[in-house]
Design goal:
With 136 residues, this protein is an alpha/beta fold. It contains five helices and five strands; from the N terminus they run H-E-H-E-E-E-H-E-H-H. It has a five-stranded mixed sheet with strand order 4-3-2-1-5, sandwiched between helices.
């Protein structure tokens, strides 16, 4: 991974993910879904955790308390962007909801935290795709 001027190092991304995993484990939450959409009003969740800024469509980061990290994004998002933390497995899919649900089914059971994509008075739950919200 190459860090750009002002961008965190791989070590800082790892520390951020570990802090979230620690909070999940302490809270008894199995995993967190971090949503990302291009949002000029402050959607920096994906950038904060893995350095990804290139999304123009919905992207989802799954972080399990136990350590697995997967990043789901549309195939057309395969283009240069700011540094992406290498330890997140990237899954390119046209069927984001199906892919995220399959990953959740293989995750340890428990509560799921949802965050990211907030802005202009909307919460992550307000912006969660309806089919994914219904399935969860």
């Amino acid at each position: 991974m190459t860090a750009h001027l002002g961008e965190p190092t791989a070590s800082e991304y790892a520390t951020r993910l570990q802090r979230l995993r620690d909070v999940l484990a302490q809270s008894g939450v199995a995993a967190a879904l971090i949503l990302g959409r291009r949002n000029w009003f402050g959607d920096h969740s994906l950038r904060y955790f893995i350095g990804y800024t290139g999304h123009s469509s919905l992207a989802v980061l799954l972080i399990e308390a136990g350590g697995r990290t997967e990043f789901f994004v549309a195939p057309d998002e395969n283009r240069p962007c700011f540094a992406v933390f290498d330890d997140a497995e990237t899954i390119y899919t046209d069927h984001l909801t199906d892919a995220v649900l399959a990953a959740l089914r293989s995750s340890p059971s428990g509560d799921i935290g949802i965050g990211g994509a907030e802005g202009m008075g909307f919460s992550a739950l307000d912006l969660l795709p309806r089919d994914l919200a219904h399935a969860i």
